[in-house]
Amino acid sequence: MIISPAPLATKPWRFDPDSIPFDGDLLERGHIADKLTGFVNRLQAGAVLSIDAPWGEGKTWFGNHWSAKLREGGHKVVFVNAFEQDYIEDPFMLIAAELATLLDDKKGAAEKLRVTAAAVMKALLPIGTKALINAAGRLALGTADLSGGFEKALEAAQDRAGETAEKWVEKRLEDHAHEKNSVDDYKDALIEFAEKEDKPVVVFIDELDRCNPAFAVRLIERIKHFFEIENLVFVLLMNREQLENAIKGIYGADTDAAAYLGKFVHLFFRLPSNATNRFVPNALLRFGFGPSSPDADLVDSFSHHLEIWVKRANLSLRDVERACALFALATDRESGGLLAYLITLRLKKPKLYAGLLKKSPEAYKESIVWLNSFMAPVKAGQAAPTATTSPNFYTGCLMELHTSAQHHPNPVHMPYLDIHERGVIGSAENRFRHRAIEMVLKQIDLSLEV
Question: pTM of the entire structure?
């Protein structure tokens, strides 16, 4: 059956600040936010929390909705996408600027935060960078032309670079007390604002694990050194494993990254992913496959089988969306069970998928071994399952399709396919079991060969 084309992409998700927090909460995570809010309200002494989940598990969605709910409850909240701003010279600047905007009381009080933060930044930035910033500032104020201003700045930087080590150390010692006072002044200003709030101020840092490793590590260090004050809570939305890899990349492979990260994070929470299969129907709907679709039965078959692979292969929300896009790519969707399986291989086991494309005997054998690991064992004296809805029937059919592809034209007995073939490969390939995998692979392979 040839189906009319479906959209192959959906609009990127953007949080609507006017929406009701956790509206459309398909994964039922609203109660998790309520529980976490209870923790935050007991952290008047300040803390850093981590919400850990793999990439594509909906951390950003959860963080945006939880932050909106916190605002509704009277918290002052900042939401920072660190990945979008990891080009900034120092993450201190990013956090300080956001807090100054958040805590501005419209009476000019936030100016104190900005001035003291600027003094801290002057101490943090490299000497050469300071020279360029000064030159850019003069240019913006119209006090220097492009060539002269930057030329002088570069000359100044070269002069500093040429100073002897002794003079440089002397200068740093002279500046140290002033820089320490600048840090203390900034903390005092921040404490002054934060302590006026009835509830902890919450700063969300998203996409930390996708940042430049040096920026990511420096950011968590800056939080510890400059923002560890009462009534200020940081929430890091991240993939802990990736951030630990970033720490090892900066400090060496032998670094105990988990222990190092533990110095900066007070409480670690893991976002549950056991409800991802509930996302499948909604993802299909976004690609135009609704209950009124002319191929609704085929969509239901694919959805049912993909939900099996969500649990087996631990598919993330992003994986599910990509799987639905590949389903939309297929012009013939009758083989729903086989499509769901091969799409899962493409997403989670690309080497095995590539082997099947090449009709590698080893790939077929490896696939059978992998599939067999999902077969529920039958106890001695217990009859094999007979219900075609049993996952064993589905898995058995897939194993027999691999076997058929290897043994044609001398097919072996196929007890699962003889009973449940239509539920896996529909009717179009009934007479071509040995080619079913090959034919469906062509449906989702993005090769441009003619």
Answer: 0.69
